[in-house]
Fold these 2 entries.
Entry 1:
Amino acid sequence: MSRPSTPAEAYELLLEGNRRFVESTCEHPNQDAAHRAALVPGQKPFAVLLGCSDSRLAAEIIFDQGLGDLFVVRTAGHVAGPEVLGSIEYGVGPLGAPLVVVLGHDSCGAVTAARQATVDGANPQGYIGDLVEKVTPSVLSARAEGVEEVDDIVDVHVERTTDLLLSRSAVLAERVREGKCAIAGLSYRLGDGTVRQVASRGPLT
């Protein structure tokens, strides 16, 4: 299969892979020795994926992709600091990926911790506290809209992360504006393995 050249093609390829995963008909593409050897000179992933670090959210597995297909960046609560933004810019710039995905999930521990911190005023110690602080604006924004349930807050956090990427990365914003790249904000269900779109920026169709 040729590499997708447009955001819409890349997005559909990801969704097709997720459907195979959900239906237990995975093809496990691009995982053989010949493909591994072919990638040695360089990579050309068709999508950049910023996902939560949750161990149940392994991108290549839930989208049924293989080596060289996805440029994956993962942090707890898909928090996006300078290193994450730089990685995404590398994926859409030098590597030319036409799609960026922000992937959240239900029962997110980072969102749960941030929500609890706004209730009892106690922030976790160490760098976990820093992470919670970065998720807290999404919790407060959700609360202002009357949203209190963790899984609904996750949707707000995914959408806010999508907008944050565009507002903080001039490289990504320019490529989206030119139609060369799009951003899809997705929420993954741990129980059935499906993904649901909660945000989109740029030409996904």
Entry 2:
Amino acid sequence: MKKAIAEFVGTFTLVLFGCGAAVIAGMGTGATSIDVLGIAFAFGLSIVAMAYGIGMISGCHINPAVSLGVHLAGRMSAGEMVTYWIAQVLGALAGAAVLAIILSGKASGWDGGLGQNGWGAGYLGEYNLLSALVFEVVATFLFLVCILGVTQKGAPSHLAGLAIGLTLVVIHIVGINVTGVSVNPARSLGPAIIGAGSNPGALAQVWLFIVAPLIGGAAAGILFKTGLLSAESED
């Protein structure tokens, strides 16, 4: 129960602060580099804060793709992974719901945006499906390489949260204009479901942000399990 609560709180924080920075700071299609950097650091620093806040309890996955990678690397059971997934999705839904409540009080009105992920015409850089798929798979894979590498035996664990957070920052700097950056199915599901009434297109596209991160996370987990990317066997 402690681990589930920690994962709920962590994912709630990531969605509220990360997606909140994207919509409250007002990033639009003509975003400047300052807008991108600010949003990137909001997501990354949310990870850093939660890594040190809940890391000792649950490991601070706050991402179903991370939990899948950790499971396939041999570091957690399937049952525990499913518990994490449920807590993460519920946390993301709660974070998006609270963000929607805050935005609904904007005097000049609100278009219903909650930082939903997407691709194609009318979405940020208007990249196509292939670009979105490739970015999300590769970025999630590299994210998990960092996470699984810095948390393995012998790694400097006191720096893990900072390394993981900064990796998420650079992923966002590169990918915000491609997909808005998911690399996290829960982060995508929360805003897509809560904001479905005003943006049904995001819900229609959310499948990619479930499938692609899970593929990338699984690939990294398997490589660590085989020992190809680990300092020692994950047995």
